[in-house]
Amino acid sequence: MRYYDAIVIGAGHAGVEAALALSRLGNQTLIVTLSEKSVSHMACNPNVGGTGKGHLVREVDALGGQMGLNADSSLLQIKMLNKNKGAAVWSLRGQTDKDVYHENMLSTLRAAKNLEILEGECEDILVEGGKAVGAVVSGEKIGAKAVVLCTGVYLSSRTITGEEIHEAGPYGFENAKNLSAALLEKGLPLRRFKTGTPARVYADSIDYSVMEKEDGDYDIGCFSFMTEGKLLEQTPCYLTYTNEETHRIIRENIHRAPLYNGTIHGVGPRYCPSIEDKIMRFADKERHQIFIEPEVKDGELMYVQGMSSSLPKDVQEKMYRSVKGLENVRFARYAYAIEYDCIDPLALSPSLEVKAIENLFSAGQFNGSSGYEEAAAQGLMAGINAARKIRSLPPVILGRDEAYIGVLIDDLVTKGTNEPYRMMTARAEYRLSLRQDNADKRLTPLGREIGLVSDERWKKFCDRKAKKEAITEAFKEKVPLAKVAELFRSKGETASVGMTIEEMLKRSFITASDILPFLPESLRDPDLAAECQIDVKYGGYLLKEKAHREEMRKMEEKKLPVDMDYLAMQNLRIEARQKLDKIRPITLGQASRISGVSPADIAVLVTHLVKTNK
Ligand SMILES: Cc1cc2nc3c(=O)[nH]c(=O)nc-3n(C[C@H](O)[C@H](O)[C@H](O)COP(=O)(O)OP(=O)(O)OC[C@H]3O[C@@H](n4cnc5c(N)ncnc54)[C@H](O)[C@@H]3O)c2cc1C
């Protein structure tokens, strides 16, 4: 039998991060995939990032993960979303060439030290004495000290377009036929989720002249803190809308929609609904946005964002062709829904280790999330923690006040989810502190400590940090009245005293570019100055957030004994007893976030801990 330190099952967005983290941390790693074609395959949108998701990409990058670099190497367009709102919710979104994205990640895997790729189907996990000791791949038993499950949307999956149902993975790829049964036999709680994707249509069958052109932003950076410069050549997307005729076609054929006629049993993502779901749930809306996005550079296919569906092909043709600019559209691939098995994430500990089977970790869509970025973030953490388990080191668990990654994992393993979970800025209670621009400041020192941040990245981080500190220091310099008055006058305002740059920046009408001339020449970096000014403008709110974070930290530091007999605690309400026993939180903070555990229950817990001297 051959042995590895770790086996990662799946080479999607979660699996590649897990495998790269493990191998970069010096572990002999095997990554198993049903097919190399599925390596970092973008089964849905050909884009990376988006609201809240852009934060995850930057955090993965700051910790030394691969997604940001890979996205930058395949960008067709980049945008900063929500620029008209506060800095907390600004999020990067990049349109990528999905073929280049896949090929570059595959090359990275092939070039990685300590990493082997194996095509085959994992049929079972080897477990001895409650610990994972390997996997069975296409009939071969392979030994390992840790196993990471990243099976995505492939477990016993089936694709559905109207009455047409195929036992298959996305894009017609092979699915995984045997692993679900093996996991169920080991007592893992599996359930069925569903997601969907729109049609891919021929680019030359679209009339772009009647659509709105959507250009990218040329004045912003890319995802990775390592990528220099800006994306100067960008490919446009296009915007059009559904209309009353589209809605009529859908309503008239709703009895043929698998979502509504009982064919689909899996639960779909509320925040990424199909077009038939949108029409039925938001009946009063007159139109819905449809974005036409390139799948690859100068390619023949376009992705029709907003028209995800599982309606039959003939209905899809009618409804797509009712949209302005799509009257003569030709289909390359029809829209479809996919159902798949995944685990109830309440079965996982915050390190992403399966509670019932030691040394078995899991990440990505298998954990009940949806999205490439959510998958990559979990994959990275599962890889890090599997590597630490192998070396008997304590796990790295990011707090909700440290990273969106912390929010994502805490939500999944503490609250669970009844639908494919996706990240949103609204889920983060400390979003003013957890901005995409400061992900490196928050996480790169930790990535260095873990061992994933290279010397080159570390040097770049230290230089950037030093420069930002110098700019922040320079903000304290006083500017004479004459110059302040001149600047204020140009904005239609008046000034009667000289003031520091910081004081000027606190005025809503003063921007970072206005104060650049007052900085020493060596510090006139418009991007860094723009980042530094955010901390000034939101200074008061940030202080309040900090005070709240410190309060919550105290709860997080209070560890709960692993052997606590919650069921025997008569003073707790029955629901709280059962939930605490099922989830077994590791801190008082985590216990307080479990739905069904009230502040009164926490008070009972605290009293019990004090009484029993724990
Ligand atoms: C139709 C469709 C629509 C989607 N829509 C959206 C959307 O609108 N928004 C969004 O954010 N996300 C969407 N997604 C989800 C997105 O594709 C996933 O979130 C993301 O790919 C998950 O990454 P992952 O690494 O967990 O799994 P995947 O990317 O699914 O990768 C799984 C990997 O595991 C391998 N594998 C599985 N089982 C085995 C086995 N037994 N043995 C060996 N290898 C195995 C596969 O070969 C593959 O390499 C959609 C996906 C699909 C298929």
Task: Indicate the structural class.
Answer: alpha+beta
Mean pLDDT, rounded to whole units?
A: 95
CATH top level assignment of the domain at 200-337:
Mainly Beta
Bound molecules: flavin-adenine dinucleotide
Instruction: List low-confidence stretches.
Output: none
Work out the number of β strands.
22
The tally of helices reads 20
**Overall morphology:** globular
Oligomer: single chain
* Annotated CATH architecture of the domain at 200-337: Beta Barrel
Largest sheet: 7 strands, mixed
Compute the separation of the termini in Å. 45 Å
Radius of gyration, Cα only, in angstroms? 26 Å
CATH topology category name of the domain at 200-337: Elongation Factor Tu (Ef-tu), domain 3
Helix content: 25-40%
Give the percentage of residues in beta strands: 15-25%
Write the layout of secondary structure elements.
Blueprint: E1 2-9, H1 13-24, E2 29-33, E3 47-49, H2 53-62, H3 67-72, E4 75-81, E5 91-96, H4 98-111, E6 115-119, E7 122-128, E8 131-137, E9 140-149, E10 158-161, E11 164-166, H5 179-185, E12 190-197, E13 200-202, E14 212-214, E15 237-241, H6 244-252, H7 275-281, E16 289-294, E17 301-305, H8 313-321, E18 331-333, E19 336-343, E20 360-362, H9 372-390, H10 404-415, H11 439-450, H12 455-474, E21 478-479, H13 481-490, E22 499-500, H14 501-505, H15 512-515, H16 526-537, H17 539-557, H18 574-583, H19 588-592, H20 599-611
Parallel strand pairs: 1-2, 1-9, 2-6, 9-20
Antiparallel strand pairs: 3-5, 4-5, 7-8, 8-9, 10-11, 10-19, 12-19, 13-17, 13-18, 14-15, 15-16, 16-17, 21-22
Helix pairs in contact: 1-9, 2-9, 2-11, 6-8, 12-16
The chain binds flavin-adenine dinucleotide (FAD).
Residues 9-15, 32-35, 38, 43-45, 121-122, 150-155, 170, 176, 179, 195-197, 272, 338, 364-366, 370-372, 375, 422 line the site of flavin-adenine dinucleotide (FAD).
